[in-house]
Structure formats: structure tokens, C-alpha cells
Design a protein that fits this description.
The chain is an alpha/beta fold and 310 residues long. It has two domains: 13-134 and 297-309, Rossmann fold (3-Layer(aba) Sandwich), CATH 3.40.50.1370; 138-295, Aspartate/ornithine carbamoyltransferase (Rossmann fold), CATH 3.40.50.1370. It has twelve helices and nine strands. The chain has helices at 18-37, 59-70, 91-98, 112-121, 136-150, 166-178, 194-205, 217-220, 241-248, 255-259, 281-284, 291-309, and strands at 48-53, 74-78, 104-108, 126-130, 157-161, 181-185, 211-214, 226-229, 266-269. A five-stranded parallel beta sheet has the order 7-6-5-8-9. It has a four-stranded parallel beta sheet with strand order 2-1-3-4, with helices on both faces.
């Protein structure tokens, strides 16, 4: 049974119900089929999405712009340097004004608190395009991609190797909602946020999934159905790059590590990839990689979100 999502903010997967996650994934499947068959589907004619980018973007900006165009709407790029936010206008006032012009807002920024405040004062749905704590659109895309490749999600084992960052947080929340076991394998001191881990573990009870923290990559990947990695140095932490290269070196996703996994284990990366650091060329370009299918599916998943909330 369909659930009503019009007007809903998409801030983190933790704030979505199981039914809402299922509806987003099913809508993405339908819209991808329409796209592949060339069927015109434009429910958002006359609708406008405002996109605020305070962080650089390739996939997020292009996929949202194309998504709105394909759905019949218009995406308006809002450079923070051109907004009055740059000159001290509050987030609350910005939200109140933009709500009067736009049908939805997407923001890619640093502090998650800014997105939450934007949503609090906005009268139109707000979509989190990435913050320091969460990347829900990417994680939902990952669930969609895994379901495409594996046929289902419940009971699968996803092992994320690397920094306990916004992707680790979102994958834990996502796995908990769909019954997929998620293990975060990271160096000591670089684990996911403790409160988020507790919340994901509590969410997982309802679906029978497990959330675990591991520190030994070879042990972690033994029963993995999906092996996932991300950059070791997130945007805003560039000054830590040299130190992180040393600490994370044993956590590289390479052919040697992949040999210890199941033969049918798939490789994922949310991109951009720093080849030769967190992942090697032979793995990201290898037969088990579905990395570029992931990237394509950002378009279809975000079309689903836009169609549902607008």
C-alpha cells in the first residue's frame, strides 16, 4: 500500500519509515524502467527545485538537474556566494523566503545542523544532498543498486571498509531499515558516531538486521555480499590527509583483500574515488565492481524522491 510522502523532508534515513524506504526504492525501479523504454513521465511540470551547494559536486548536481528536467520541472542552482547567506542573512529567513518561490529545496553543505534548521523553517520539502553526518540520497541509491544486482536486501551482508563518516552512518541506517546486515570496518579511533551507531542498532531490531564494528579487514570481508569503500579523507579534513594515508593503508580495497571474500561479492564506492588510496584500479575496474551502476542510479533514485515529495 502506497504511503503519502508529499511535503516530506529527506534529512536522514533514520527519519524515514520502512514503508517510505520501500516506496522510494520501488518508485525508483518504475521510473528507471520508464527511462529505459523512453516513456515520457513529467509529473513536475511547472515545479522548481532550488539547489544550494556549499560543497563541490559532480554527481549530486548533475543528477538532480537532469532528474528535474526529465520529470518536467526546473532546477535552479543557488551558489551560496550569490545568496545573502554570504552576508549574514539567517538560515531561517532564507528558508522562509525561498519557500515562497520554490516547490522543494536541496542543499549540500557542511554542518547537518544547517540542513535541519533549513527544514524547520521551510514550508516546502528539504532534501539533504550531503552533510558532515549523512548522505541519505547516496545510501538509498546504494540500496536500490544492491536490490537490482542481488534481487533482494534482507539478510545480505554489507561490509564498509574505511572511515566511519557520513556514508558509514547512512549505510547503517539504510541496512537497519531493510534488514541488511552492516559491518563497519575501520581503524580504532575512526569509528562511526556512537549515538548514530546506537540508533541504527535499535532500528535494526525491527527488521532482524545486525550492525557491527570491526577493525580487521580480512576477517570482515569473509562473508560479505557487498564490500563498500569511500575516500579516507572527507571534504573539510584535507589537513589530515598525510596522516590518514598511513593509518588507513591496511584498509585498502585491493585484489588481495578481495580474494578473501565470497566469489560473488560485489564492490561499491560512492565516488569520487582516490585510485591507489582506498581502492585500486584492478578492483574498481574489475568484474565485481558495480561502482558506475551506482553512479547512474543516483539519477533514478533522486527522480523517485522528487516525484514523491513534490
Amino acid at each position: 500500500m502506497a504511503v503519502q510522502m508529499k511535503g516530506k523532508d529527506i534529512l536522514s534515513i533514520h527519519e524515514l519509515t520502512r514503508e517510505e524506504v520501500r516506496q522510494i526504492l520501488e518508485t525508483a525501479r518504475i521510473l528507471k524502467m520508464k527511462n529505459l523504454t523512453g516513456e515520457l513521465f513529467q509529473p513536475l511540470k511547472g515545479k522548481t527545485l532550488g539547489m544550494i551547494f556549499q560543497k563541490a559536486s559532480t554527481r549530486t548536481r548533475i543528477s538532480f538537474e537532469v532528474a528535474m528536467w526529465q520529470l518536467g520541472g526546473y532546477a535552479l542552482f543557488l551558489n551560496p556566494a550569490d545568496l545573502q547567506l554570504k552576508r549574514g542573512e539567517s538560515i531561517a529567513d532564507t528558508a522562509r523566503v525561498l519557500s515562497r518561490y520554490l516547490d522543494a529545496l536541496m542543499i549540500r553543505t557542511h554542518a547537518h545542523e544547517d540542513v535541519s534548521e533549513l527544514a524547520l523553517h521551510s514550508n516546502v520539502p528539504v532534501i539533504n544532498g550531503l552533510t558532515d553526518r549523512f548522505h541519505p540520497c547516496q545510501a538509498l541509491t546504494d540500496l536500490f543498486t544492491i536490490a537490482e544486482k542481488k534481487g533482494s536486501l534482507a539478510g545480505l551482508n554489507l561490509v564498509y571498509i574505511g572511515d566511519g563518516n557520513n556514508m558509514a552512518h547512512s549505510l547503517m541506517y539504510g541496512g537497519a531499515r531493510v534488514g541488511m546486515n552492516v559491518t563497519i570496518c575501520c581503524p580504532p579511533g575512526y569509528c562511526p558516531d556512537e549515538e548514530i551507531t546506537k540508533q541504527a542498532t535499535a532500528d535494526a531490531v525491527a527488521t532482524g538486521a545486525s550492525i557491527a564494528i570491526e577493525h580487521e579487514p580480512a576477517r570482515a570481508v569473509e562473508k560479505a555480499d557487498i564490500i563498500y569503500t569511500d575516500v579516507w579523507t572527507s571534504m573539510g579534513r584535507e589537513e589530515e590527509h598525510a596522516e590518514r594515508l598511513k593509518i588507513f593503508a591496511p584498509y585498502q580495497l585491493n585484489s588481495a583483500l578481495l580474494k578473501g571474500a565470497r566469489e560473488d561479492a560485489l564492490v561499491m564506492h560512492c565516488l569520487p574515488a582516490h585510485r591507489g588510496e582506498e581502492i585500486t584500479d584492478e578492483v574498481i575496474d574489475g568484474r565485481r565492481s558495480i561502482v558506475f551502476d551506482q553512479a547512474e542510479n543516483r539519477l533514478h533514485l533522486q527522480k523517485a524522491i522528487l516525484a514523491l515529495v513534490i
